[in-house]
Amino acid sequence: MSTPCTRGGRPDSPRRFPFRLRAVSATAPEPGTAADSSTGRRKPNRRPGSNTPFFVNSRTRRPRSGGRARPAGEGPTTVSEAEHNSVPDAIELTPESIAAQIAADEARITFAQLDLDPRLLASVIAAGYEYPTPIQRDAIPLALRGSDIIGLAQTGTGKTAAFTLPLISRLLDGPKRTRALVLTPTRELALQVEESVRKYARGTGIEVAPIFGGVPYEPQETALRRGVDIVVATPGRLLDHLEKQNMVPDDLEVLVLDEADRMLDMGFAPQINRVVEQIPKYRQTLLFSATMPPEVEALARKYLRRPIVVQVGRRSSAAVTVAHAVYPVPAEKKVDLLVHLLRRPEMDSVLVFTRTKHGADKVVRNLEKNSIAATAMHADKTQPQRIKALEGFRDGSIRVLVATDIAQRGLDINGISHVINYDVPQQAEDYVHRIGRTGRAAASGDAVTFMAPDEIAMVRTIERVIGQQIPRVSVPGYDFGTG
Ligand code: AMP
């Protein structure tokens, strides 16, 4: 493989400009954001007496009385809860990033301009999408041309449609054989990719089968032997089927490695290698990853041919529309604070993360004691239990889902209003992925992290990695002072 070249739709692609502060999409505004509802191009404001422009959008926070944006490097200030809930934050961007933002706004195109088959265009419209997200805008034309792609994008950016739409397009009206394989790290993600394929391929005759462990082999075997167009699989169970020759990979033309970093984190490298070795070399390979550690780079070098890198936002950057906050709270008051927050009417779909399975069960028990219905989701739950929890959360019958990091990536649920990190994540990357559950492509949400005294150092590490300070919010009666 040759060295990946980085290019996309525009010569002045914004990925070249490191954004120092958060909150404005690195490229075109996402559908439904404040930028989107404006007249199109956003003009930088200027502070009195300053040449440094700044953007303010509806989700952002700005000091109220003649305050200024806090420069990067200054310590976080603590604001009161009321202030946090009412005041937008200030956003400061570099002149280069503003130029990039304007260029991106001008480059905004519609789905109709992406050369998608009319049937796919109809599905996209039926899904209610108005404009492609940046990753879709950049990746779809390249994928339709048959290029190998490295898509650096996290969940919430619209990455699934960025690969499923060109995938389906390629298979339309072709022979009935298994021609595409999507590898995913978790069964939840496999199910979500399957759902996307079904949604976009409606009426085209394209068939998809999800393949993952923890459920009986027979229905999967039947589907594979019958011959579906697209297989979406976790690596371990797929290998079992390949070994039993339930699936013959000889006709595969497209391979997608979705959330490659996550698959490697979960120790799937040997299984991925064994699967890919069996797939024809002359194929199109699309690799999507939220991050690009050396292991993913090595994987790309091994399996992709002259890949083009399409990058959305800064690596490791937190989802752009999310408002973050850290709530300092003594460990023994976390349950009470959670109950206090969950009593708010705007908390209508809340994903709570705990570090351990035991912790998740305990939080659920404590919430139930306070008459708040909640459901736990973690590795000890059976597959049917997990699917039920996910469906309940998705259809709104479960308002509070308490999960360990197992649920961290695979979840694609529209309309999560809040993510609450009951425990501070142990890895900064996990913070980014967890809060990626909210602030989805067309939504905005809040990400709240409870910080006990022994978690302060971890929060600082996260702030260093994401390159921004997270505002502290003090809730009287629950903060350190009242421990
Ligand atoms: P993903 O990053 O693939 O997990 O997608 C995140 C969410 O964004 C999913 O719920 C999609 O249905 C939604 N989505 C994807 N593309 C668009 C778009 N162009 N406009 C609005 N929403 C979208």
SSE layout and pairing:
Elements: E1 5-6, H1 34-37, E2 45-46, E3 53-55, E4 78-80, H2 81-86, E5 91-92, H3 95-106, H4 118-126, H5 134-144, E6 149-152, H6 159-171, E7 180-183, H7 187-201, E8 208-211, H8 218-226, E9 230-233, H9 235-243, E10 254-257, H10 260-265, H11 269-277, E11 284-289, H12 294-303, E12 308-311, E13 323-328, H13 334-342, E14 350-353, H14 357-369, E15 375-377, H15 383-395, E16 400-403, E17 418-421, H16 428-435, E18 446-451, H17 456-466, E19 472-474
Parallel strand pairs: 1-12, 4-19, 6-11, 6-12, 7-9, 7-10, 8-9, 10-11, 13-18, 14-16, 14-17, 15-16, 17-18
Antiparallel strand pairs: 2-3, 3-5
Helix pairs in contact: 5-6, 6-7, 9-11, 16-17
The protein binds adenosine monophosphate (AMP).
